[in-house]
Amino acid sequence: MGTEALRNQIEELREELIHLAERMGLTAMEVVEKSQKLDKVLNEYDRQNQRKK
Q1: What is the pTM of this model?
Q2: To the nearest whole number, what is the mean pLDDT of the chain?
Q3: What share of the chain is helix, strand, coil (3-state, %, to 5)?
């Protein structure tokens, strides 16, 4: 997946995470899982950017 696609996915996951957290609270399992998914995508984005340097 390219960096542009990762950026789009990051933005989508952030939006979803914010809405979930507002509805369910920060400690809800769904919120934690979405946060972990976002972390993985952010790490992948960072790895790809490090390779380019």
Answers
A1: 0.90
A2: 96
A3: 85, 0, 15
Q: Which two tokens stand for residue 26?
A: 């920060």
DSSP state of 27: T
Count of structural domains, the chain: 1
Instruction: Report residue 12 as tokens.
Output: 């989508």
Q: By residue range, what is the domain housing residue 35?
A: 3-52
pLDDT beneath 70, residues of the chain:
none
Q: How many CB atoms lie within 10 A of CB 31?
A: 20
How far apart, in whole angstroms, are the C-alpha atoms of residue 36 and residue 29? 11
Q: Provide the b/e sequence for 32-52 (b: ≥16 CB within 10 Å).
A: eebbeebeebeeebeeeeeee
